[in-house]
Amino acid sequence: MKRLLGASLCIWGICVVQTAIAQEKRAVKGTVRDAQGAAIPGVTVGVKHTATGAVTGPDGVFRLNASEQDTLVISFIGYDKKEVAVKQQTDLKIKLDASATSLNETVVVGYGVQKKVNLSGAVTSVNFDKTMQSRPVTDLSTALSGMAPGVSISQASGQPGRENAAIRIRGVGTLNDANPFILVDGIESNMSDVNMADVESISVLKDAAAAAIYGSRAANGVVLITTKKGKKGKTSVSYNGYYGVQKATKLFDMVSDYPTYMQLMNRIAVSDNPGSTLPFKQATIDSWKNATDRTLFPNTDWMDVLFGQGQLTGHTVSVSGGSEKTSYYMSLDYLHNEGIMKNTSQDRYMMRVNADHEISKKIKIGANIALTWKDRKEPQDVGTVLTNAASTTPGMTPKITDANGTRYGGRNTDDENGQLDNPLQYIETWFRPNRQQRTFAKVYGEWAIVEGLKLQVNGAADYFNTSQKNYAYAGAIQNRWNFQKNIVAQQLDQQPATLAQLDSTNLHLTYFATLNYNKNFGADHHFNALAGMSSESIKGTLFTGSIQNFPTNDTWELGAGLEQPKVGGTSNLYRIISYFGRINYDYKNKYLLEANLRRDGSSKFRSGLQYGTYPSFSAAWRLLEEPFLKDAIPGWVNNLKVRASWGKLGNDRIPLFSYMSLYSAGQNYSYGGTISAGVTPLTMANPNITWEKTTTSNLGVDANLFNDHFNLTFDVFKRRTSDILVKLGLSSLYGGLTPPYQNVGVVDNKGWELTMGYNNKAGAVSYGISGNVSNIKNEVVKYQGNAFSTIAGAAVIKEGWSIGSLYGLQTAGIFQNDDDVKAWAAQRTAGLNKPGDLRFVDVTGDKVVNGSDRVNMGNTIPKWYFGLNLNAGYKGFDLALLFQGVGGVNRYYQDNWYTTGIRSGREINAEMLNAWTPENPNTNIPRLTAASNTDNTQANTFWVQNASFVRLKNIQLSYTIPKKMFNSTLQSIRVYVNAQNAFTWTKFKGLDPEVSDYSQSGIQYPNVRVISGGVNVIF
User: Fold this and answer.
1) pLDDT over threshold 90, residue 261
2) What is the spatial distance between Cα 115 and Cα 79, in angstroms, rounded to a whole number?
């Protein structure tokens, strides 16, 4: 027994000694890296069940004391938590895997990137996944539709080469240029010159806190486009190609049956004067009804003549890869876009090279080079063609080509107006080819001076050249024919062959340097500071020349013309210099603070007023990091952050030299009977103009729920733009002088934005839904007192109203009989209205309807914007749908294509067949009258339409072929079909609700619906 007790005590003693040795603390070092091998700074490393811990430095290295029995717990936002047993290791190599959470996303911000979870400003990042990049989008700007809250995209035209969309971020804040500041790889550029397949990400900076680092040009928001870079490893080659056909989303429905048209014109002729002679004889109407030869007796639908089916095809090849020290990305892109109107097309060629090289561990250099070449073809002026297209009739034969050559039609009956336009003639004999070339090059260098301190220097040159010719064949507007009688119906002046040419260049030089310092103080305090300066200059030149009379129709050069040579030209120079800085601080990744300051100097203002200073401040609080709140918040809440920001920005987007008096040369004066050359004043000077100023405040909440399957972002904001530069009217005493700019306007935009998304899997099925909605109220706070300023048609600017509000008379139905007319307030200055006319409300109650009774008829800036994305995937099949729309918006729609005031020799909209007559009293359309009668066509609410719409912007079905089915040298093969602008739901009766606004008429090149199919192959 004693022996056993002794042995037990001996064993116990040995164990105690060994345990004591094992629990002895010693220095332990480690490095934390991500899956790609990059060091991760700021990682928390703690000893499990103890208070011992450390934080990794900029190189990912940590040091602490631990025993062999200890377990280290490694955690960092956006990565899966990891536990590592120390054992006998003294230099640990730890790899963290990115967690399946959106908190891990990095977002491009001004002069850098940030983790999404650390943002304190209002920033939206657009996801450019495989579905997005294989859409047949001919212009990158149109791709943002419905993708970001508070961002409005309005495509101006479906014409090849002119699709560039208007982008508005959080409404319209100025009466001048309201476009956002767009940067590509940190340099101001044009979205139209970026290939969609080259885009890595797009960030939209919406509040002053996010955008203030860009100062004066960020007042309307900032769009940051980052292009792809190469990755270390095996070279990857990708090809994407597609072919599609396109047609107009909608065309006008016009009266194309000529007998019906003639009967309507007869009715209109006697509508105001019953004794008037009918323009069309019944014999003429009967001859058309009974005819079988529709060449000589045509019922021409001019929409079918002008518009047909276009096609487009695109090819992109990209190569990326890299070694240990060098990475590269290269791409070539070709797009052929043949429009839906004859002689409208564009060929676009793009090339991009992005390269980075690590000279040493501390020095890195890189370059971005992009080349763009565009050849656009169009008639001399598409807008004029479409306007003239309304000045014709269905009784005209477009053209006949026979042994006598090509002849264009005029009227085929003497009853018709002799002054008809033939739009096909313009399309086929007038030309305006346009060539654009852009060469962009950026080089940069980085120097990691010491740990945490980095210097970056950037230089860029952007050279843009446009060459355009306008020419018309000799006798292009030739005589127009009556093909029934085979005689000239309309004799026109024979114009000589004419060429007008312009060449413009624009050289944009940019230099900026930043010094960035990143430092962690202990485990809790994280500090980052950025200081920088930039200098930019933009020099433009313009040359114009024209000449007439060419020996043939094949020698369209200025040197080949024989008569009337003219030349002109000008140049300009714009400069801006800036100094900026930013400080970021966070405590335990819990309290986030940021401050920005920028000072800009612009050559658009006189000395002494050239500089503006723009500060911003923002803060965020991550509630889940608070111990006293963590237990009170449900476990299904993965992230909860509140944000607040305030900032001030500027805007100098007015023409150069606006503070100076401008004069025009080449004006002749008479002195004592002798003609002498001289100059004349054009614009008055106002040397005291200075920056527009925009102040923005923002409150926001970000939440991630249910293991990050559901995410939510909500923002409320107010943006006030003051000292808006506008031109107020001058007294007639000043003659024809253009008034100067003045800092007098104030505009408010208030609203909120909500984004929600849910993604999950159910077995082999993956699915997701995400949507965004924004509500924005626009108001002109200060302009010119109670005065109105008409800006286009019925759109005005008035204090207390939205920019571009519609102003006119309120309708109250239609007069049905003479007693109805007599009982109503007087609407005409002389005489009485007729049954079938619109009744207008006597707002003032004085028994007279006049200009004093006009009211606000609606707003042309939408109050609601929304987008919805749906996607699903199953065993290689993927389906994605994108819906986009706006609400709470009106358009004033009355033009040559849609009116009850009919001019002789003009088209008539088919909807006017339902106009009021004694036999058709139950209609809301007033009677048809001659265009000279403006009783019903003056600005009134009948012509105001609800332009809200929902559009299925894109639908795509794709299939990724299983790898086992093809050669192992291929990485992926994906085939897809796609429909762009597939369906539109709207009450708007014009061509497209997305196109028209208060500054545009309804007569435009229609938007297009594109059906395409393609393949994406990765080698």
Assistant:
1) yes
2) 12
Are 265 and 285 contacting, i.e. CB atoms less than 8 angstroms apart? no
Cβ atoms 996, 891 nearer than 8 A: yes
Phi-psi region of 710 (alpha: psi -120 to 50; beta: other; left: phi over 0): beta
Of 221, 103, 224, which Cα lies nearest the Cα of 717?
221
d(C-alpha 99, C-alpha 103), whole Å? 9
Give the model's pLDDT for residue 11.
Answer: 40
Pairing mode, if any, of strands 929-930 and 901-902? parallel
The two beta strands, 222-227 and 199-205, are antiparallel
Pairing relation of β-strands 326-338 and 345-358? antiparallel
The answer to whether 346 and 376 are in contact (CB under 8 A) is yes
The DSSP-derived string for 838-896 is EEE--TT-SSB-SGGG-EEEE-SS-SEEEEEEEEEEETTEEEEEEEEEEES-EEE--BT
**Extended beta strands in 652-740, E state:** 662-671, 674-683, 692-705, 710-727
- CA-nearest of 87, 109, 122 to 201 is 109
Of 470, 467, 465, nearest in space to 382 by CA: 470
CB neighbours of residue 976 within 10 Å: 22
Q: How far apart are CA 647 and CA 207, in angstroms?
A: 8
941 vs 96, higher pLDDT:
941
Per-residue pLDDT tens digits for 493-549: 566 788 899 999 999 999 999 999 999 888 789 999 999 999 999 999 999 999 988
DSSP state at residue 196: G
Residue 116 pLDDT more than 80? no
Q: Give the C-alpha separation, 481 to 487, whole Å.
A: 6
Region 33-50: what's the mean pLDDT? 79
pLDDT tens digits, residue range 609-633? 889 999 999 999 999 888 888 778 8
- In this structure, what are the phi and psi dihedrals at residue 276, rounded to the nearest 5 degrees? -65, 150
User: If you average pLDDT over every residue of the chain, what do you get?
Assistant: 87
Residue listed under structure tokens 């899997």? 761
Q: Cβ distance 702 to 621 under 8 Å?
A: no
Q: 347, 319 in Cβ contact below 8 A?
A: no
CA–CA separation, 344 vs 349, rounded Å?
17
Angle formed at CA 441 by CA 436 and CA 445, multiple of 5 degrees: 165
DSSP letter (8 states) at residue 384: H
382 SS3 class = helix
Q: How far, rounded to the nearest angstrom, does the alpha carbon of residue 976 sit from its chain's CA centroid?
A: 26
Coil, strand or helix: which one is 158?
A: coil
- Compute the C-alpha angle 39/41/47, nearest 5°: 105
Q: Token pair of 386, please?
A: 């479409």
Cα-based distances in Å from 682 to 658, 660, 679, 791: 11, 11, 9, 21
- Enclosing H/E stretch for 375: strand 363-377
SS3 content of the chain, % helix, strand, coil (to 5): 10, 50, 35
In the chain, the N- to C-terminal Cα span, in Å, equals 79
Instruction: Residue count of the chain, please give it.
Output: 1019
Angle at the Cα of 568 from the Cα atoms of 566 and 570, rounded to 5 degrees: 175
> Which has the closest alpha carbon to 839: 862, 822, 856?
822
Amino acid found at 16: V
Residue with tokens 């030089």: 509
413: Cβ–Cβ under 8 A, 6 or more apart, which residues? Answer: 280, 284, 395, 482, 484
Amino acid at 655: P
In the numeric block, which tokens belong to residue 45? 């490393």
- Detail the DSSP E strand segments found in 151-305: 151-155, 165-169, 181-184, 187-188, 199-205, 222-227, 233-248
Q: What percent of the chain has pLDDT over 70?
A: 92
Check residue 307 and report its DSSP letter: B
Between CA 694 and CA 91 the distance in angstroms is 54
Question: What pLDDT is stored for residue 628 in this prediction?
Answer: 83
> Which H or E run contains 346?
strand 345-358
